[in-house]
Specification:
With 117 residues, the chain is mainly α. The chain has helices at 16-24, 39-43, 67-71, 95-108, 112-116. The longest helix is centred in the last third of the chain and has 14 residues, at 95-108. 5% of the residues are buried.
Amino acid sequence: MRKTGLDMAHVPCKSAGPATVELLGGKIAFALVVTPRLLPQITAGEIHALAVTQPRRSPLLAQVPAIGEAVGLGLMQDVVFVAWQGMLTPAKAPAEAVERLQKSAAAGWPSPLCASA
């Protein structure tokens, strides 16, 4: 983090669950976790959202700045973090089940929150 002057060490966790436990327990100073998973803790005031890692503010947390705003000084404004989420099924799933899941997912994804994220 030379650009920001932060002195930090990466602490790897196997998933968002252990990272959240470490964060809530005060064992780590901050974590990068997909925001929707932590919305209950954020809205309850258990976790303070510092920034969202996207070019503009999220409609889910409009009061939380985008990372370029939070860091300031023009730092990280051109950085885009991508959190890929996949809807998966076992390879041996029946074709009709896969097709039904795909149609159901396609019907739900055009929501405004998905389109603007």
